[in-house]
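Pipeline run #58 for the internal structure catalog. This entry was flagged by the ingest filter as a single-chain record with no existing model, so it goes straight to prediction. Upstream metadata was stripped on purpose; only the residue string is passed forward. Reviewer on rotation: M.T. Logging verbosity set to normal.
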Amino acid sequence: MGSDVRIERVLPATIGRVYDAWTRAELLMQWYCPNPDLVLKVQADVRVGGEYLVEMGPHIVRGTYLEVEPPYRLVFSWKWDGDSDEATRVQVELSEVPEGTRMLLTHSGFATDEDSANHRLGWEPELDRLAGILSAQQVR
């Protein structure tokens, strides 16, 4: 089994604003792709058992929401179309801190360390874009 991806960030926004950025399709479309040059389409039915679909150019990932606890926690499965590996699991935990919102993303269940490393390479620029969008909006 591959190692987990764990990324922690403190974002300059209220917990509600960060949660919205993770759960509203029109906001996800502003940041939820590591390559900003790809056409991004997002559908999200954010409720336990609801499904999501993200098209990043030719790359498609989909899954089901497993836990939805606004505005503190979101857990969903993650499965690439055309990939024979089992679905992985993404957990987003949010908490208020003096600087804004602490976000801990944990992506687990990878088949190999290489798969884990590749997903980290995808998450890092996405989360940089999220932080940039939240900073630009100066939501506090």
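catalog note: The beta strands are 5-11, 40-44, 51-56, 59-69, 73-80, 88-97, 100-108.
catalog note: The chain has a mean pLDDT of 95.
status: ready for reviewer M.T.
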